[in-house]
Design goal:
Hypothetical protein af1432, mainly alpha
Length: 204
C-alpha cells in the first residue's frame, strides 16, 4: 500500500527520464503554473472549495501513476499501447500529464472546467511534448490522449481510454484532511469540508 501524498509523484517518476523531463517542463512553465495558481483563486478563495491547485495536481499525478502500475501488474494493457498510439512509457506520460493538468480549467471557472481545461492545455501541450519527442506526429497524438484525460475527468463524461479512467479515479483519492484545510480556515464549515477533515490518510 502507498500513502496518497505529494511525495508519491517524485518516487513514481524515478528511472523514467521522459516523465522526469515532462514534469520539469510543466513545473517550470510560467503559463501552466499561473493557471494552476488561478485555479485555487477561483476554487478556494472565491468558492471556498477544496484545493484544486499545484499541490492537488502533484497528488493526483502521483496517485494516477500508482494506479497505472497496479493495473499493469495485473495484466491490463493501456489503451495507448493497445490502440497503437504509443508504448507503455507513453501511457505513463499521458496518465501523469493528464492527471497533473486535469483541474487547470478552474482558472477560468468551476463550471465546465473540464472543457476549458482541455482548451487551455491544447495551447501549450504540443510545444511541451515536442521538446520530449522528435516525432511531431507522436507529440500531437499524445496531446490528444492527454486532452481526453482532462475532458473525461468530469463525472458526466465517459472515459474512452484506460488512462482517462485512471485519471478520473485518481482525482477522487485526494480526500485527506489537508485538502480541506484552506477552505476550512476561510470559514467553510459545511459537510464537505468537515467530512474531508475527518479523513486522516488514504492509501492505494
Amino acid at each position: 500500500m502507498v500513502l496518497v501524498s505529494p511525495a508519491i509523484l517524485k518516487k513514481k517518476i524515478e528511472d523514467h527520464p521522459i516523465l522526469e523531463k515532462a514534469l520539469s517542463l510543466l513545473e517550470k512553465s510560467s503559463e501552466v503554473q499561473a493557471y494552476l495558481n488561478m485555479a485555487n483563486v477561483m476554487a478556494v478563495q472565491r468558492l471556498l472549495y477544496n484545493d484544486h491547485g499545484p499541490v492537488h495536481s502533484r497528488i493526483v499525478a502521483g496517485a494516477a501513476l500508482q494506479i497505472l502500475d497496479i493495473m499493469l501488474d495485473n495484466g491490463f494493457i493501456p489503451s495507448v499501447v493497445r490502440d497503437g498510439v504509443g508504448d507503455e512509457e507513453d501511457s505513463r506520460l499521458v496518465v501523469m500529464t493528464g492527471a497533473y493538468l486535469h483541474d487547470i480549467g478552474n482558472a477560468v471557472h468551476r463550471s465546465y472546467h473540464h472543457v476549458t481545461g482541455a482548451a487551455l492545455a491544447a495551447r501549450f501541450l504540443p510545444k511541451i511534448l515536442r521538446e520530449i519527442y522528435q516525432d511531431s506526429q507522436k507529440a500531437y497524438r499524445l496531446t490528444s490522449e492527454i486532452l481526453h484525460c482532462i475532458l473525461s475527468h468530469d463525472e458526466e463524461v465517459m472515459a474512452l481510454s484506460l488512462e482517462a479512467g485512471i485519471v478520473k479515479v485518481a482525482d477522487g483519492v485526494d480526500m485527506a484532511e489537508g485538502r480541506a484545510r484552506m477552505p476550512y480556515k476561510q470559514g467553510k464549515y459545511d459537510i464537505h469540508a468537515l467530512s474531508a477533515l475527518a479523513i486522516r490518510r488514504v492509501e492505494i
